[in-house]
Here is the input.
Amino acid sequence: MTRLRFALFFVGILSTMSFAGAQPTPQKAHSALVHAVAVSPDGKTLATAGFDNVVKLWDLVSDGTIKEKKVLAGHTGPVYAVAFHPTDAKLVATASQDKTARIWDVTDGKTKFELKGHTDIVDAIAFSPDGKTLATAGADKSVRLWNPVDGKEVKNLGAHDGSVYVVAFSPDGKTLATAGAGKDSLIKLWSVKDQKELKQLKGHEQPVTSIAFADDKVLVSASMDRTIRVWNVVDAKETKKLGPTTDDPYAITWSEKAKTAAVCGYSGQITVWALDADKPKFTKAIKNPGYCVAFGLDGTFVVTGHDNGTVVVTPVTPPGK
Here is the structure.
């Protein structure tokens, strides 16, 4: 069962929750579910990936609105993930249900390379911090490394025992973390240089839906066991368990600027966590199931993507703070 199918099972049984404060204004972005959002390294561009098979690029405006500037069309199935190249503003990578990943040249909106090798949905994609390696993973249980310069597969690292939903590089680029379903709900750590498995992080009791590095030694994860966990990747030990959350968390992201993690849940709930706290420092409910979250460059707002094809820009710090 894919992560989305698992998600849709829970959407129907989620309770409706009331939170204080006005609702941010959703902005229609796609004609189907928005499964991934990403903010460019300079903070000026938003990428959204939809189940209408396209990726869109938007200007991020200071008042919280977005303005469409380009559509990347070519995938023949829903787009599950999108990532900006860390140093080359022309390049964006995407992953799709059509069993391919793509690297796009956004100057002309065309595919630069189509990456073929996966035999099922490609759920996840990420560039290494230096931009020299691209990682993908998917429902075929495999984790693969690619060369973004020529689009060729470098290494099939190996497999989980279930679908792999997420990949994340450490800030120093030395470690790749991967996670998903499977009988043990493992997070695996891989050496990028040696191209082999290093360690396993064990503790989650249900599929791991998202992961993010806080620094080279600290990883945070979200799971359908309704917990957010903090890990020391050097010792492969859990150092903190946050939650239980009030709904099933689907996506997690880290802001280096704000030193906080943001989580988007299946019910649309957004929470922001300091890793040394037991409760979220910010909570907001968006009235539609949410599947992805990304911080703005300065950590003062998050962008979330939702089941009804909308994206929402939500301030997460008080004005002037």
Remarks:
- Residues 5-22 have pLDDT under 50 and may be disordered.
- DSSP finds one helix and 28 strands in the chain.
